[in-house]
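Summary for the funding panel

The consortium committed to producing paired sequence-structure records for every protein in the target list. Below we show the first two records in order, beginning with the earlier of the two.
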Amino acid sequence: MISYDGPINILLVDDYPENLLAIEAVLSDLDYNLVKCLSGEEALRALLKDDFAVIVMDVQMPGMDGFETARMIKSREKTKEIPIIFVSATSKESQHLFTGYAVGAIDYMLKPFVPQIFRSKIEGFVGMYVSNKKLQQQKILLQQQTQELERMNKELMRTAYQLTKAEAIKSVISSTSMDTMITFDEGGIILTVNPSILPMFSYAEKEVIGRHIHELVPELCLAQPEGMTEQTAEGVSSGRLIEVMPLRKDGSRFHAEIKLGSTHVDDELIYACTVSDITERKKTERELLTAKEAAEIADRAKTDFLAMVSHEIRTPMNGILGMTNLLTETDLDEEQRDFTEIILKSGDSLLGVINDILDYAKIEAGKLELERIPFSLKSCLDESLDLFIAKARENSLEMLCIVDESLPEYVYGDVTKLRQILMNLVSNAVKFTPEGRIEVSARPGSGAFAGSARDMTVEFQVRDTGVGIPEEKLADLFQPFSQLDSSMTRKYGGTGLGLAICKNLVELMDGSIACVPNEPRGAVFTFTVRLERVEEKPGSGQADLPQPRAEASAEPHPRWEASQPFSFSAMLSDTFAEIGAAAMPEMETLLPDRYGGGGVLPFAPPLLDRLGRSRKQEAPRVLVAEDNEVNQKLILKLLDRFGIEADVAENGELAVEMALSRTYDLIFMDMKMPVMDGLEATRRIVGQSGSAYPAIIAMTANVLPGDRQKCLEAGMTDYISKPIRPDILETAITRHLLGEPAAQRQSTH
């Protein structure tokens, strides 16, 4: 039964408050909400807010009288059905009565009225109002039910259609599927199969109906779960794919995958099984596995070949560059000095080509890893440009470096790879710019990274006024071995790997690189990298950087001068010791303490003087394990230049014998030697020396990924690659001979 429990509002309109109070007294014991208004205007405002069951209104009121108010009420769609009762004390009864009915009133009463009659009329109109509300609710409910019935009818029709369609689709799929579909009961008796049973099992459909599923799929023993393999039993229970060997009619077997499902039909458990023939897939997998093994063998062969080529080229290069460096320090006439400088420049160019090829091999193998060390952005830019200042002056090029002041002074990142990118781009700019200017800039980038709030994007730009890049060449610019001019008569040399290496290094650092023409001439290379801000110490306002240790020497080392050359070969060989040789003085406080000492030392005052002071005039004992006669002479000459005499071992076995029979402060160990290689020799020296053994520095022509790690795992203390430069050698000697004595050095491996 529908009931109305909403409010019942009655509007009372009279300009005399005492009349309103009199009406309120008559209706006070009824559960009505009486809304009193003193004017027609106020009554109209009340009608805009609420719904009313009946309106009781005086005729004569100042401003808008009752008749005019009634006309306004009846003109609105929302209020025209509300019954209006006029209550008046006027003497013009007949005239007002006619007018009242004309404007839409439903009743007219004279003052004073009989309370019982007034009350009964109000109750009658309220009853009509409540009945009307109930009818409205019934209408709404009926509409809702009608809509729901219509919706259910449509849904029923749609479901019936879908069921019919699903049955048709199921029939088509079952009859056209290349997989065999089988249903069977709980006892394993086959109920239905699809036509694919014939090409897959060589059975006709009627031949297998009523047979046991075990005759087709022997692994599927539902009646005897203990007869199933663990994989099959797990597949039956979980519905996963199971690899089985089904049985054909002729007794042959084939590779297949089956998937089981089950459902209850009239309290009977019914299984459905789909059988997929995977014979071809298994064949492809075997072929892929064979190809993968062959590719791995080829990859290992390529790696071994690169290592061999690197060793075989760098070993004579070590002799060429080393001896040429020593030759430049002898008395030469002007022509001889020109010849030696040409040899050095040619050797450096050849070494750059070798390093480009090896770097690209590392990138191709995916074996490049990022370091995370704090460094100065400004110093990194300065060091990258220092190498090219002389060439720029020679070509009358203006070279500018601009660093945005909003960038932090120190950041965390891989300074070596960032410097390599900058040097490649600046080198190209110098090479392709015959006149004008080269501008290198750094500023905050717009990219954002999820994770640490300290992560930031830094955008670098190298802008030149050179020959520019043709529009049609931009698409292939960052492809390996791509050349702007690949003809035999080209003016500019190069391997075509520099920009490809830059692109891979930038992407490794979560950045991007692009090139656009520089108007009116030249090119602009822009790249971004992801770096991390160095946090400041709380309350100190200073960057949170590693602190330098107190040096063994009593005298402070002189600061690095900007005019000193940066080791390009050291940077490309990506070794800790060589990179340290080229570091700026600020980097002494930035590089981590990896080998028991502090930061990497810069070039120092005469090495022999400091060695003498640290050893109390006792000459350091050094052993060189090297099989190549040229390299033996080179390292001995370089050591002699520093005032150090050394013993020589021609192979690893002899090096072990000498290291265990004498006390050495430092051993330079080649990795590839006859009889016993350097790695095995190091393991034996470390293993048989107990907790104290000399510092062992790997000295090798191998610079492939993993070479340095192999050295450190064998027990070596440091790693330098050939060709060996005097400054690199001096850095290694300074670090390890000015550190702790051999007797006090503890194993860290």
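The next record, for a separate protein in the list, is shown here:
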Amino acid sequence: MLQTQTEIGTAAATETKHVALMLRISRDKGENEDTLQNHRETLSEYAANHGLTYDIYAEIISGGITEIEERPELQSMITNIEKYEAILCISLDRLARNGVVSQQIKQLCIDYNIEIITPAQTFDLSNNQQDRLLYDISSTFAVLEYETIAKRNKLNKISRSKRGEHVAGSVPFGYSRNKETKRLEIVEEEAVVIRYIFKLHASGLGAYKIRDILNEEGYRSAKGKAFSLPSVRRILKNPAYRGAVVFNDRKKVKEDGKYVYKVIETYIAEDAHEPIISPSDWYKANDIRQARAEHAATHVRERPSKNAHSMLKDLLICGCCGRKSLMLKDSKSAEVYVKVCDYLLPNSTQKCGNAGMQLRYVIEEFADFLERFKGETKKKLAQITSNDTSSIANDLVTKVAHIDKQTVETQRQYDNLINLAVEGIFSKKEILAKKQELTERLIFLQQTREETQTKLVELDVKSEKDRLREIIDILENFDGEDVITQNEHLKTFIKAIRYTRKMPSEIKALSTRNPARRNYPFKLEIEYI
């Protein structure tokens, strides 16, 4: 996964043209970073010879992807398209091998009068009908070629998987892939860990406890990282450990407005390689795992139903690790709890450990905050009305500082994505989704900071009056609304509510019935939009 890079080519001519230099290679075609570098050098030389300055957008991803949102670099280029006079690429198929995406790029170039430049030809799509026709023909051939290659590759993978070869996905921990036979072979020092995991599971332990034991005893993944909860669960479910090779033939379909992959047929080759876990033990472990999952879904605690919707839904996040706080309902008492945070801290074997709390106490504290906030908002409105803007200025300065703090934390999470990808904690699709989420978050923070700085300079009193009156109106009628409406209203001026209840070890060691532990305080911090 590559990050966006920006480079400036030296101009040989007096008048220069600023372009977007788009690089894309596909691992499906056996291409690698060397190919990407070759394309970069070719286009950089072309730019220098033709007096072009440029920003580089580089990605290693299939051009047949149907959604621009799944190509963050292309999407970033489109967002910044007004900065450029042309798009520079090796060939048209490097922009896209999907008809829908190709036509979206074409229309974008027409709307913004953007040329597409390749070393062989320049396409003036806005002003030249022949160029538009050539573009459509070239794009059609690119799509047909992609579909032919994809179909041939899939049939080849199906045939090889039936023979027991490992043809898809990363090599499971505990195995290596023989380059000649294409089959999995046991790596004994890693296989010891796999057997230990299944042994712990057979003794009655769940994935949470297994993860903690592995990390406490110093076991590490193939990449030398701490074991995560998803990685333990994937190991327990992976049929490779019983000696099977599984290939899922998937098709991308649209459901509820979103594209998802559906498995249309599964090919399984048993006894494809030497098992680390005997098939009987593997099936027994997965029967137990499935039974536990079904039991957990109907006993002890469950997610609140729609009728148990909280005003804090999607707003409450962990103040220690930044992940979304979960709310669970006790099936016996019907009490809803903020669940203890069991996520691992970033790049650590230590669990977050942010303690839980009955949700009603959190809501009571938040209700007190809202009452105070309403009074403060009314006071601000009165000050503005009397032309005293000092409180607004102070709030804006505080907001800028808070945005800067959030930007640093979000950038840290973005930079950590590469480690998560290498470690294999998340799938490629999950990494892309998280990257897009964090990119949008950084853009949002940057825009919010710029808007706040502008407000600080201009102090737009009228718009601020309107905003404060709207918030006051919401809070005046808040108690009479149902929780779903309350939640919708809160999201108009609150970005997040950070919940923190980090107990010292001596308090945590006490019984849950001990008053010192039961009454240990929590803290709420509000992040405004």
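Regarding this second record: Residues 135 and 239 are 46 Å apart (CA to CA). The radius of gyration is 28 Å.
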